[in-house]
Structure formats: C-alpha cells, structure tokens
Amino acid sequence: MAQRQKIAFQGEYGAFSEQAALAFFGNGCTPVPREGFRDVFQDVLTKKVSAGIVPVENSLFGSVHQNFDLLQEFPLSIVGEVKLRIRMNLMSLPGTSLRSVRNVYSHPQALGQSDRFLRSLKDVTLHQFYDTAGAAKMIAEQQLTGAAAIASLQAAEHYGLKVLKKGIETDRQNFTRFVVLSRTPVRPRGAAKTSLIFSTNHAPGSLVQCLSLFAERGVNLLKIESRPIVGRPWEYLFFVDVAGSSTDEHLVSALTEMKEHTSSLKILGSYTIGKVVR
How many of the other CB atoms lie within 10 Å of CB of 45? Predict the structure, then answer.
C-alpha cells in the first residue's frame, strides 16, 4: 500500500488551510496541523512532511505578509496553488442560543470578514485568536458558555459544536489563495504562472525598467506587491506573479536581462494555475 503524503498546514483540524490541502491533494493525503507558518516551512525543509500549504492572499483583506517574508527566507519552491471560497460560520456549545452569546473568538481576518454580521449583535465582545478552528477547539475543550467561534463547518463537526448561523461573511466573493510548498520545483502542465521576488538597484527608474521587460515581451503581469527590506529603511522587495513558465523562451529572456537592473532576484517557482474551489 502506498504511503499517504503528509501535508503541513497552519492551524488546527478544521482550519481553512486543511480544506485547501484536501482540495489540492485529495482525500488520500494526511494533513498535519502546525502552530505557526514558520513551522510549516521548517517541516517541509527538514523533510518531516512531503509538502506544505499556506495562504498568501485574501480577496477582501489582501496579502498574508508573513508568508511572503518566509518565501524569501526559505529555500523552498512554490509548486501549486488553490483558490478556496471562504464561508464563515458562527458556532457554540450545544444548547447555546444566538441571543446568549457574549463573546466571539476567531482569527483577526475572520472577524474582519464577518464585520457586518458581528455589528448586528448586541453586547458582544470580540476576541482575536490565532486560528479559526483553534477558537472552535478552545470553546469545546474549555466548555465555554456564552461564547462562540467563527470557523468552518468542518470545524463545527470536528469539535462537536452547534452552528448558530451559516454564511456570516460580509462579501460572498470571499476567496483565499493558498500556495503549495516543496523542496523540489516542478514543471507545470498547461497554463502556468511564475512567482518571483526581486529588489532593484538603487537608481531612478529601476523598477520601471524591470517591469517593462515583461511588457516588451508580451508577458502578462498578474500581481505585484512590495515589502520593506529589514535593516534597509525605505528599500523594498517586490513580489511578482507573471503568466508563463520560467522555461518559456520569452520569460527566460526577460529574467536574464532583469538581472542587470536588480540587486537580488529569486524565482519562487513555476506552477500550473490553480483551480477555484467553491
């Protein structure tokens, strides 16, 4: 019998990251919960797991900056992606009514994404927690009365909680993009994208020169984001997604010339454009 792939994710069982792992790898994988994002990267690097999966951006709340920093730090490759529709649900101990809830626990992004519903509740205090599913687990283990968590339906089922209200997210077009991490790069099949990080030479027009190399070769720029460089005030790293594989002739040409205008350049990986899971 083939050994099941172990896939590290941040959070507890029932977390959206676990759903993303199952959506990408299928039910034949074994999701492995880890406390922090750095733990996921470290487990992949040290071969404790076959791969890892982490969120990098949400359609409503933007990028998960810590994971961009970790992508720069760790010598790992992005080998895939999946975009997961996020549905927020309010849950509590069985026997709890919506009117009796006085404290709501969840990850800061989940609280923010459910802001309109939460503002409709009276006399409720919001508490930030490290993980959506972790909030559900805490309520179940500590048997907290008058408390509710915002998490997935899978978390409610896993921890034996009652769902008080389904679909409390403010915007139904709520998606999170997850990337899959591996020690070894892959050759993408079909439509591909390439992710890279670079810093420019400290000279006027350097960023424009870099980006124009893609435009001149008809390479579609899919995403660009800047992050400050630690220890170098007012200097930035740029995270970029472009259409195509790093082995495509036009992209090879752009990246080769780009080295003349950058002080650092790291290709994070080329991979097949991921599916949207609703």
Answer: 15
C-alpha atoms less than 13 angstroms from C-alpha of 98 in its C-beta half-sphere? 13
| C-alpha span between 40 and 53 (Å, rounded) | 8
Residue positions annotated with a catalytic role: 176, 178
Judge contact between 239 and 207, C-beta under 8 A. no
Pair of tokens at residue 88: 């927020």
The boundaries of the domain holding residue 13 are 6-86+174-182
Instruction: Please give the model's pTM, rounded to 2 decimal places.
Output: 0.94
Asked whether the beta carbons of 203 and 213 are under 8 A apart, the reply is: no
The number of distinct structural domains making up the chain is: 3
* 64 plus 97 within the same structural domain: no
**7 near 152, Cβ under 8 Å?**
no
Chain centroid, CA 86 distance in Å? 12
Q: Has residue 202 got a pLDDT over 90?
A: no
Integer Cα distance of 163 and 16 in angstroms? 17
Q: pLDDT tens, 91-112?
A: 999 999 999 999 999 999 999 9
Tokens found for residue 124: 């409720």
State the first-to-last Cα distance of the chain, in angstroms, to the nearest integer. 32
Within a domain: 203: yes
Show the tokens assigned to 197: 């990080």
